[in-house]
Specification:
The structure holds two protein chains of two kinds. By secondary structure, chain A is an all-beta fold. Chain A is built from no helices and eleven strands. In chain B, strands 2, 5, 6, 10, 11 and 12 form a six-stranded mixed sheet that branches. Chain B has a four-stranded antiparallel sheet with strand order 3-9-8-7, with no helix packed on it. The N and C termini of chain B lie far apart (40 Å). Chain B is globular and about 40 Å long. Classes of the chains: A mainly beta, B mainly beta.
Chain lengths: 112, 113
Amino acid sequence: DVKVTQSSRYLVKRTGEKVFLECVQDMDHENMFWYRQDPGLGLRLIYFSYDVKMKEKGDIPEGYSVSREKKERFSLILESASTNQTSMYLCASADRGRTEAFFGQGTRLTVV
Amino acid sequence: AQTVTQSQPEMSVQEAETVTLSCTYDTSESDYYLFWYKQPPSRQMILVIRQEAYKQQNATENRFSVNFQKAAKSFSLKISDSQLGDAAMYFCAYRSSVNDMRFGAGTRLTVKP
């Protein structure tokens, strides 16, 4: 059974903290994605990676960075968390090409 | 970047009836995939159905079918014989040759018993 695992389901952090959201997939997929989900806005792409150490900015990369040192792991980093980054974060992975993406269970991040 | 538009924030259907969710997209590419995902309260995104742009035949998965109009850039989802378990957020998605994947804002479907 395919699996994408996000390190936390719920997370509470303080303003200014450096936050790491981790995502691991076990399907040997080349592509991995980080999305942010907010009511009325759907899923917005933050960053995606098409290979180890390779990344592309999505639609809302400001305030975020990513790291992909190994094929199975894709990390989202909030360098200095702010309250407007309170949101649901979804990680996904997919094969190269036009195939479907598989999702993790999501991390609900609250920045106080 | 390609855009995906879902113009219905909320929809409601009576159990056993049929409902259609709308999606339009904007692209200059000719080869791409389109998807409908379901997100129940558990938050887990579940693939409902996919459509390859080069296929003229509309995809069907049991009670779920699509109406794919490539020239109009329209991709609607029809749910027949609606069940209580169909209640969820539904997202339309587009994936192109550059490998990224874009989603619409979603439609919240309520199923009334």
